[in-house]
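Exercise: predict the fold of this chain.
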Amino acid sequence: MLFFRKKDKETPSNEKKAANSMPRTKKVQFLPTKISELTEQLNADIFELTRLEPVNYYADKSSYFQCTFFYREDYSEVYFVVEQFDNDFRRASTPYYKGSYELMKKTVIKFGQKI
């Protein structure tokens, strides 16, 4: 009889737990770079997210970054994570970050959306 070992699951960070409890989400896509470089930039300053170039998901599905914002209706709490997708499969992810209303507003305005 074969026994399979369970994978050791990482305990989710406080930011991830809080993000998953938020009632609303918004997703935007960007041109990809190296995920390790992006993680370093975001660790230094989360407003580096606003410097990424937007991409049309329907035009370029082969490779892109997807930023998912998790937030409350009144934008009092905002969290985000950036994931790298190749051919619609998630390949890598940054840690979850605590953002702000200003960061979310400056990011989605690049897509012609006002909040």
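Check your answer against the key: The mean pLDDT is 89.
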